[in-house]
Each structure stands twice: as C-alpha cells, then as structure tokens.
Amino acid sequence: MLSLSGFFAILLFMHLASGGPCDNVVTISSSWPGGLTASLNISITTPITSWEIDLKFSSAVPWLKAWDATESRINEVEYQLRNVSSNGVQSAGTTLTSVGFNAVFSSSTTPIITSVLFNGDNVCLIDTKTEDRQPIIEQENNILVDAWPTKYNYIEVITKSLLFYYAQRSGRLPQNDNPIPYRSDSALNDRGQDGEDLTGGYYDAGDHLKLGFPLASSITIVAWSIIDYPLGYSSAGKLTTARNMVKWATDYFIKAHVQTNKFYGQVGDGDLDHDYWGRPEEMTMSRPAFFISTSKPGSDLAGETAAALAATSIVFKTVDSTYSALCLTHAKQLYAFAKRYRGIYSESIPQVADFYSSSGFGDELAWSASWLYRATNDNAYLDDAKAFYTEFNLSDNPSEFSWDTKTAGVQVLLAKLTNENLYRNAAQTFCDSKVNQPKTPKGLLFVTKWGSLGAASNIAFICLQAADLNINPLAYRQLAQQQIHYALGDTGRSFVVGFGHNPPLKPHHASSSCPNRPAVCDWDAFDSPNPNPQILYGALVGGPDNQNDHYVDDRHNFFTNEVACDYNAGFQASVAALQSLAVNGIFN
C-alpha cells in the first residue's frame, strides 16, 4: 500500500532492488563497488508547477550527481533534488520518470534509500515486501503493460541514448525541453554563404562540427527503428521523444536545403574546430558552411538525406501529416538532384574528406530510391532502386553497414519491400557471414578499430531486420543480442556512459568534459586525469581498438572513447528492436 497525499508509484522494470522501503519509486539499474545508478519513478495526481525531492540514505553518500534535476547536499546521508526549467510543470496523470542520479559511497555495502519525499510527501511503500510486485511499464498513452524480463534494462538504455542526442543538439534549445543542465543555446550565428539560416541540427561527435552525411545516415537508421519497432519505444514511454529526436535533425536538413539543387552538408572548419576544446556555447572561431550544387554534386549526401527525410515522413505520417508531407517534398527533390547530378560529396566539399570521405554514391542512390518507394508506394522509385542495385553491383557481400556503406541496408530493405529471393539471399549471405565470422575472445564482432561498437551495433540492426523476414531468425537475433549485450556489460564492464557496471567516465567529448559554468573550460579539461564533470548519459563510446578486446577509458584516445551520433544510431535502433521482441514475448 502506498503512503499517499496524492502520489502513487509505478515500479519500472527493476533489475537490482535496493531492498528498502522505497523500491517502489527507486530503481537501482546498476551498481559497482563504491557506486550506483538509480532512477526515480513518481506518478502525479494533482497539477504542480515545481517540485522538490528529498532523498535519505541508510549510510554516507559523499557524492551524488543528478540528471534532469539540480542537486544539493544537505548532509552526508541526505540530498535534495529540484526540478529544472524543462520539467517543473507536471500535469495530473503524468509520471515523472526522467529523473535519476549516480551516487558514490565508501562503505562495503550499498546504501539503502530509506525515504523519498516528493514536495514533502512520502511516496515510499509502507509495506516493503517486493516478492509479489510484478514489473510493469507505463506507455505514453498511459496504458500499463507487462514488462518482459531481460538481462539488461533496455528501457533505461533507450531513455539514456535519447538523452545523448539531447546533449548533441546545436542551435536555440527550447526552454521546456532541455533535460541537459550543462547545455544551452549555441552556434546561433551559423549561416550559409548567402546568409541562409543554418542553426540547429546535431554536433557530430566529441567536437562541434555539423556534418550532414553521417548525421543523415544516423537519422535514417533511427527513423527505421521507430517505423518497424514502435513498441520498443512506446513500452519505454519514449515514442514521442524518439520522433522529436529525428525531427530535430530533419528540421535542420530542411533549412540546409536552401534551393532545389543546393544543399549545405557541413558547418564548421574542421581544423579550427579541433584546435578548440571547450563548450559549444562559448565558441568564437569562424564556422564556414559548405554545400553541394549542380556544379559541385554529391549524390551520396543528397541521396542519404533524401532517405532520412523519406523515412521521417513515414514516422510522422499519422502524427503530423503536414510535416510528413514537407519532409517528403524535400526528399523527392534531393533524390532527383542526387540522381541527375552525380558525384561524390567529399570531392565537392574537400574540407570534409579528412573526416567522412565517401567511397561512392551507388548505394545511396539505391537506398534513397528504396526509402522513397516505401514512403510513396510509387513503383517508379522501386524500378530505380532495382536498376541501381544492378548498375552498382550491390549484390556483393559488404564487410559492414555504416554511414558510408549502405549496401547491406539496401539488400534487407528491398527484401522486405519485395520479398524477392535476389535480395533475401543477399541479406542472408551478409548475416550468415557475420554469424560465422570469428569474434574477439569476449565475443565482439570486430570490424574496425574506429568505433568498433557502433559498427557491431549497425550489423546487429541489419540482422534483426533480416530475422523479421524469417531468415535464420534465432541465429540472427542471438548475434544481435550478443553484440548489444557486449556493449551493455557482458565483458564485465559497460561501454555506455552512465549505464551499468563500471561505465566509461572519460569520454572524448568536449562539452561534458567542462566543469559547471562559470568555470573556464579549455585544454586543461581535456588533459585532466579526472572523470568528466558532466555525465554524458547514454553515449556509446568507440569501444575496443583491436581484436583482443583492448579498451582504455582515456579521453585522449579517440579510437576507444570518442562518441558520435552514428555510433548511437544503430545501437539505439537495435535496443529498440530487442525491447519490442521482448515485450511481444518473441525473444528474450
């Protein structure tokens, strides 16, 4: 029974119970010697305009860092959390699930949270027995459904991965939707060569460049996961957040598409950007913008952006038909541009070649045509996709699926759209080769030393898609789960910041390495031996840099510890797929 005064608790997918009277509102999702990660889940039955949460521990907790709240220490066992501007107003019938914290303690046993006061009211259970409570999930439509037990808390992973994308946002941030307390408006003067407004979008990685090609690839993949695995997001209460995550990028793509055949693909000078280590809010260097046009074509960039916009048009088709139609209009124009004026974007924008040089554009032409067919059901696009598939010999078995190489994605997407053996067999060849490929001693499908976990996650997602076509479903789902669980902790440590056992503490990421303002942030922060002062929740770090599972949690090592929008895309998409399978009881 709950102690009340208007508040009720929902137990959200508990993995490591604290064993105390507040298990109903506190989920300890991970712990390690001397530390833990917990989230709070409190239902609201009366409207409020602000809130305070008072936490009391059974033993000393000398350090606590909250997310989606500000924290203050009362004494060694008591802390108070207060709302930030984006989540102070809460309506009756909603659930406050975005607040949580990392805590550090020195005792040999994990402290128990003995009291949680929400605006002065105790929201912990009077009856502390937990054995009869069933785990449940609250969806965004307020329907409660049974949660499927999984080894790792996929709901927490999805939630935190979306927080990572919040941390990467550029431009003017909405006051009512900014859960990252150390981030605010930045790069408000980003302009094209003719003064076009290029604010918004996402910063690519640990730096502050805006790079259209890898970002468009990331958005296509995430949109794909929303289309095919909406239950993965809705069961985590994050379907709307996921839609808004892709929209933040597609809003920017629409801005960058300034003319029918002119599209800005980069903002920021790579050399100047990498000479600066600090907050994006405080950048003063020149940020030139670079575009493709009829005289400087980029079929890969235009095609991938068309794919992202076409996929996003499907995401919003039943939610916001006006926005869906806008995305589709730009997708069609960019596809026509890519098809008619052929060229490699990194030759037309030489500045980007040192960062994301393209190997070709044939796969993006087939990829974008396939997505436009899925979005429109217009056979002309399917005919184009098939023709490009033959012209560019996309039946070959690629080594990866990545921001640069879409062939495996084309194969499985065309298999899904046509059910033809030509494409099904190609998808099977790809995934069979990955199932049979020797793994590292700890089980990683090692493809590249630069972002090895992102590469493995992308393959996981493609093979989860192939499994949905009933192509070796058990083997492919086991492969995907093995790769995702490697990242989540099967090696004995997590590779996701702020999640699981012994997560990375020093990601190669400028803004999270900065202390709270107004303290100065510069290269001293980069060279600091201490953990990043800000926790970059949900960021998947690059991972092992060789086939022997070698990894160092070192900010200086961009192979193992840089983060990037494209790393998280396939990872988040795969977790959403696994969560959807779990909730449906298909695969655990």
From TrEMBL:
Q: Where is the Glycoside hydrolase family domain?
A: 154-573
Q: Which residues form the signal peptide?
A: 1-19
CBM2 domain segment(s) = 26-120
Q: Name one GO biological process term.
A: cellulose catabolic process
- What keywords tag this UniProt record? Carbohydrate metabolism, Cellulose degradation, Glycosidase, Hydrolase, Polysaccharide degradation, Signal
| Family matches, as InterPro entries | 6-hairpin_glycosidase_sf, 6hp_glycosidase-like_sf, CBD2, CBM2/CBM3_carb-bd_dom_sf, CBM2_carb-bd_dom_sf, Glyco_hydro_9, Glyco_hydro_9_Asp/Glu_AS
Enzyme Commission number(s) from the entry: 3.2.1.4
**Catalyses which reaction?**
Endohydrolysis of (1->4)-beta-D-glucosidic linkages in cellulose, lichenin and cereal beta-D-glucans
Recorded GO molecular functions are: cellulase activity; polysaccharide binding
Active site residues of this protein: 553, 562
The keyword Signal appears for this protein: yes
Tell me which family the UniProt entry assigns to this protein.
Belongs to the glycosyl hydrolase 9 (cellulase E) family.
Per its record, how is this protein called by name? Endoglucanase
